[in-house]
Amino acid sequence: MLSNTIVTTIFKNLELNKTEKEIILSKLNYIQVKKGQLLIAQNHDVKDQFFVLNGCLRTYHLDDLGKEHTLQFAIKDWWISDYIALWTSKKSVLNVECIQDAELVKISQEDLEQLFLEVPKLNLFFRQKLQKAFVRQEKRILSNLTKSAKERYLDFIRVYPDFEKHIKNFHIASYLGITTESLSRIRKEISLKA
Q1: What are the φ/ψ torsions at residue 160 (nearest 5 degrees)?
Q2: What is the rounded average pLDDT of the residues 24-46?
């Protein structure tokens, strides 16, 4: 299933020669995941990250009271993992769940580190991805600290207009840090003003 086309898809805007593509391809694994399946479970070792070819996944933390706190969604062309565990070599604090049947490309951190040595231009590619992700996280933290639930929801649908068709209401509410009832009330209020 994996081909040079997938390498080109994953590493858009990065000029790779045939040899580099073959080296990268040798480190990637194609997997299919069913809705409801956990790729990563809390308190386990994490060795891999995943690139979404299609489908939808989320990372969430389950607290001691059994409440879910969604940190990230990932749809086509997004990367996902428990990066806290992946980069600190500690047990996972997050779950990565498939919330819509998905096709993924998996790469281990060990293989990625090897690729950085064999195809150095991947260093810049991943550094730029990481910088963008860091900026998104900081904006989200600021939003959670300074904006109302309604403002956070409006930001969510503005920044991620396609997500709502992939994600259940309770997942969106969990991501926004509100109840599903509050989300329904906000949507109703918005629709009345439209």
Answers
A1: -125, 65
A2: 96
Class for the domain spanning 4-120? mainly beta
Tens-place pLDDT, residues 77-93:
999 999 999 999 999 99
Spatial distance between the Cα atoms of 119 and 162, rounded to a whole number of angstroms: 33
User: Structural domain boundaries of the chain?
Assistant: 4-120
The model's pTM = 0.90
17: helix, strand or coil: coil
Find all residues with CB under 8 Å of 32, minimum gap 6, and list them.
101, 102, 103, 104
Report the length, in residues, of the chain.
194
Contacts of 24 (CB under 8 A, 6+ apart): 7, 11, 16, 115, 119, 122
Tokens of 130: 């990481």
Residue 81 phi/psi, 5-degree rounding, is -175, -175
